[in-house]
Design brief:
- The complex is a heterodimer of chains A (112) and B (113).
- Helices cover 0% and strands 59% of the residues of chain A.
- Chain A has no helices and eleven strands.
- The N and C termini of chain A lie far apart (41 Å).
- In chain A, 36% of the residues are buried.
- In chain B, the strands form two sheets. In chain B, strands 2, 4, 5, 6, 9, 10 and 11 form a seven-stranded mixed beta sheet that branches. A four-stranded antiparallel beta sheet of chain B has the order 1-3-8-7, with no helix packed on it.
- Chain B is mostly beta strands.
- The relative contact order of chain B is 0.33.
- Classes of the chains: A mainly beta (112), B mainly beta (113).
Chain lengths: 112, 113
């Protein structure tokens, strides 16, 4: 059964710092991996989707990488801003099953 | 605008009562999902449906029921058999055309009176 782990559980950084969030998964047989952002009391907003055949995806200040063989993904946030403060979750879609598996998330605080 | 609408935003359940959470999507997505989120934990799958009139249990289906009579709608009923229903419930949808990217609604917070 696929297990997804995110470390650290919480992270606090000063504004302007570049940072990396980590996600690891136990089974390399995946269809895709998705990073989400969640603000308190809100639903999840998709940030980046990486297909199993891809190595990375970029959107603005965000870059996500995928290394299936080692069961790892990273989300890189450049020049962090207070508005980036939120919980970031990663999730993998196992192959061939259809049940997305989520990590518990990393709660990010960017201090002005 | 296309999206997923969950209602109500807040819901209160009395002991022994069944309550139904609504989820409607106008994205023309084939698959729909219900997740439960407890504080500090990842999302756990309750039920999912890949086509109309068909659905499968997730990891924590006990005490819950669903129906999928229309492509756009996937309501979740929390029955009295669910002894610890207080949680944040999230509905999501996906389709092969967008590589099964998950789209989420804004959630329903269910609390027990």
């Amino acid at each position: 059964k696929q297990e997804v782990t995110q470390i650290p559980a919480a992270l606090s950084v000063p504004e302007g710092e570049n940072l990396v969030l980590n996600c690891s998964f136990t089974d390399s047989a995946i269809y895709n991996l998705q990073w989400f952002r969640q603000d308190p009391g809100k639903g999840l907003t998709s940030l980046l989707l990486i297909q199993s055949s891809q190595r990375e995806q970029t959107s603005g200040r965000l870059n996500a990488s995928l290394d299936k063989s080692s069961g790892r993904s990273t989300l890189y946030i450049a020049a962090s801003q207070p508005g980036d403060s939120a919980t970031y979750l990663c999730a993998v879609r196992p192959f061939p099953n259809n049940d997305m598996r989520f990590g518990a998330g990393t709660r990010l605080t960017v201090k002005p | 605008d296309g999206g997923i609408t969950q209602s109500p935003k807040y819901l209160f359940r009395k002991e022994g009562q069944n309550v139904t959470l609504s989820c409607e999507q106008n994205l023309n997505h084939d698959a729909m999902y219900w997740y439960r989120q407890d504080p500090g934990q990842g999302l756990r799958l309750i039920y999912y449906s890949q086509i109309v009139n068909d659905f499968q249990k997730g990891d924590i289906a006990e005490g819950y029921s669903v129906s999928r009579e229309k492509k756009e709608s996937f309501p979740l009923t929390v029955t009295s058999a669910q002894k610890n229903p207080t949680a944040f419930y999230l509905c999501a949808s996906s389709t092969y055309a967008t590589n099964e990217k998950l789209f989420f609604g804004s959630g329903t917070q269910l609390s027990v009176l």
